[in-house]
Prior knowledge:
Elements: E1 2-9, H1 14-28, E2 32-39, E3 47-49, H2 54-73, H3 92-95, E4 99-102, H4 112-119, E5 125-128, H5 166-178, E6 184-188, H6 191-198, E7 208-210, E8 238-243, H7 254-262, E9 269-274, H8 279-282, E10 289-291, H9 298-307, E11 310-313, H10 322-329, E12 334-336, H11 342-345, E13 352-354, H12 360-370, H13 374-391, H14 397-400
Parallel strand pairs: 1-2, 1-4, 2-3, 4-5, 5-6, 6-7, 8-9, 8-11, 9-10, 11-12, 12-13
Helix pairs in contact: 4-5, 7-12
Amino acid sequence: MKIVHISASDSMGGAAIACIRHSEAMRAAGADSVVVVAEEHFGRPGVVCGVTGYGKLLHSAYRRLLARKDARLDALGNFGAMSYGHDFASMKEVREADAIFLHWVNNNTLSLKGVECILKLGKPVFWYMHDMFPITGGCHYSFDCQGFESDCKDCPLIRNTSEKSFAARQLQDKLRHWKKYRNLSFVTPSRWLGDLVRSSVLAEGHPVLNVPNVLDTDVYKPLNFSCKELFGLDPAKRTILFGAASLKSIYKGFADVRECLKGLDPSRYEGLVIGEPDSAVLEGIPMRIRTTGFLYDDLSLVMAYNASDAFIIASKAENYPNVVMEAMACSRPCIGYRTGGIPELIRHGESGFVTENNTPAELMRGIEYVFSSDAVYSALSGAARAQIEENNSYSKVRSLHSELDWSLVK
């Protein structure tokens, strides 16, 4: 069975990482799975760059055009326009595939018509959704807006009033180019996102499947030695880990994390940040905060998780976060907001703590609960690891991807 995954990148962002992991797990299960990307950074096995030669010049030009469009829209949060893209449908890997997975294909990877060209091949196409973009007029998360259920008129996230109709036009273009193809299915890692897809006008009449993200639990695991000293941490204190690609992101809720950390006892707790935040962002937090810089390899990330004692996440919009799954695989309890798919990963009182009201005070209460006793912490840690092994490990990929005909794999 030949499977091709199409992604904007092989490494940049959680969607790219999730895509690579699905393909790796499928190869481990015996399938002939490859990932085709617009931008290749690490030369990973099973990854093919679909943009070469003259195409790279086009990609650079498209990027400038997209930047101008973004500036005109002045949108709140990530907002995608699918005006430009590359001809992945003509690639040998795509034309010979038995099944095609579209992942995060923004940033000029595929245009609206480029997606249609892939649908025209007549093969089963599964759009594995890492955010809401495939079903909206352009936003990656709609917050409280339900415009994607009908027409996306008067988009509240576009701040340039002269561009308010862009979302409605793009949604109509999506409907015109994609909706008629019966070979298109939508796949979501979280049940939360699946419910939104089922209520959307674009997915009406198309199958919607739930397949959670996977990771290699032989790599992401608790280590039998202390990693705290590697990051300059105090073994006598409880280390709270947090991070995001951008601590200023409107989605990640770092302002709430900050307020939570300000209320913790600095003699008992310290923080560890994955990434390189502006020092001004961390000012005013009394506890000591260590930063790792950006970590791109699995080993460094595993050591960072193992150097911590718990992970906190206060996202205002979230699908099925890799970071929570990774922390739990390393036996670290997580404390998180009741947002998107977070409660599907963190089982409240069993493998971590999920807040009721999504407030910094609730995050603090969750941290205090996790560390309330050695017995509570040990139970949460063991359950976190066991849950990921049972539901998200590479070994489960055949049962998770039941939409594929595994009888074709010897």
